[in-house]
Fold this protein.
Amino acid sequence: TAILEAITALKRSLNLIDEAHLLNKLYQTGALSVEFITEETQMKASRRFEDTVSKKNTIFDSIVVEVANDLGTDYIFSFDSWYSKLGYKLP
């Protein structure tokens, strides 16, 4: 979901249409690694979502965090400051 949300943010929020379509083309060609979620990861995300209070933080944001946790990464490609509040480094 992070890639799809980044495409949306680039186009809608930042008005970076060309960049949004470039990222989409990279996604289409398989140039970006995609991690599919397990039922266990989805359940962890669901529990994390229950702890959120801001309407800006979606269940998809919670999935991104749990996948990042599963992968043991320190970085999340996103423009959402919620991730940095959780200790992740953004682009």
